Amino acid sequence: MRGDRSMSCPTRRSRRRGASVALFAAAVLGLAACDEAGGEERETTFAVQAWPELVMTTQVVEEILGEMGYTTETDDMSVEVTAEALDTDDVDVYLGNWWPSQEPTFGERIEDDEVDVVGTYLEGTEYQPAVPAYVADAGVTSFADLDDHADEFDRTIYGIEAGAPGNETIMDAIDDDAYGLGDWELVESSTPGMLAELESVYDEEEWIVFLGWTPHWMTVEYDLTFLEDPEDVWPGAGEVRAVTRSGLEDEDPDLVRLLSQLETEIETQSDWIHELEQEERAEEEVAREWLGENPDIVEGWLEGVETADGEDAAEVVPDAF
């Protein structure tokens, strides 16, 4: 069942501009009520970037923590600043540690125990060129098939913003004549621009190859095939991990246990992103609806976790949604 959010003691804060005085007053009153009830106040700060999958995952965890008696806060910052902020204890948790792509930023800090990896919650992420399923059905399932159909593709691969790692990998493949792509062209534009190009040809089943990734709503909206890579030009499937500032587990073992047990599927994340970006729904609404529809999953994440009041979180939290 869905809980009444107005009855929850904890609040979620943000350092983004635009928070209203009324909401702040409500937060203060809510915290005072919690103190009167004798609950232990716990605060957690999350680092975020404006990536829809990270926004949604953080929101889902914040909703759970809110029902556990926590006050949560999100800080928008770059990946590089996030690593530094975890190292200096200015933030507690980061749920956007894409691996291995962030190894240059986080690798040394993790090795030196300045940042702790507490769990991997998403596996099998993809980030490489893809084609519509109707193109794959016609025989193009690998990078090795592209040049045999160069005319159908107009010797063009559509990318995203200039400087994106995926674009760089495509340009390196062209420069190295990998898979015979030496006379091909990369069209750099933007993520919306690339997706608009896909939309413009999809219904007519015209051929296109473009930079795709998961999780993303594109895999919900379109039937796509990621190309095989027998020469290992691309880094392969990745994962997304939960990392914390060093020592958080000793201070808050319940929080870290929750994060270590967090698991999501690519399809789930893509659905969240579709609801957020294509259906234009608020992240809080999407998160609480999903949590209410999946109590068994939430219970598994909370096994052995206690709320701020010392209750069994797996027993009391799922019913709040």
From TrEMBL:
<dbReference type="InterPro" id="IPR017783">
    <property type="entry name" value="ABC_choline_sub-bd"/>
</dbReference>
<protein>
    <submittedName>
        <fullName>ABC transporter substrate-binding protein</fullName>
    </submittedName>
</protein>
<keyword id="KW-0175">Coiled coil</keyword>
<keyword id="KW-1003">Cell membrane</keyword>
<feature type="signal peptide">
    <location>
        <begin position="1"/>
        <end position="32"/>
    </location>
</feature>
<feature type="domain" description="ABC-type glycine betaine transport system substrate-binding">
    <location>
        <begin position="45"/>
        <end position="292"/>
    </location>
</feature>
<keyword id="KW-0813">Transport</keyword>
<dbReference type="GO" id="GO:0031460">
    <property type="term" value="P:glycine betaine transport"/>
</dbReference>
<dbReference type="GO" id="GO:0043190">
    <property type="term" value="C:ATP-binding cassette (ABC) transporter complex"/>
</dbReference>
<feature type="coiled-coil region">
    <location>
        <begin position="259"/>
        <end position="293"/>
    </location>
</feature>
<keyword id="KW-0732">Signal</keyword>
<dbReference type="GO" id="GO:0033265">
    <property type="term" value="F:choline binding"/>
</dbReference>
<keyword id="KW-0472">Membrane</keyword>
<dbReference type="InterPro" id="IPR007210">
    <property type="entry name" value="ABC_Gly_betaine_transp_sub-bd"/>
</dbReference>
<dbReference type="Pfam" id="PF04069">
    <property type="entry name" value="OpuAC"/>
</dbReference>
<dbReference type="GO" id="GO:0015226">
    <property type="term" value="F:carnitine transmembrane transporter activity"/>
</dbReference>
<dbReference type="GO" id="GO:0042597">
    <property type="term" value="C:periplasmic space"/>
</dbReference>
<dbReference type="GO" id="GO:0005275">
    <property type="term" value="F:amine transmembrane transporter activity"/>
</dbReference>
<dbReference type="GO" id="GO:0015871">
    <property type="term" value="P:choline transport"/>
</dbReference>
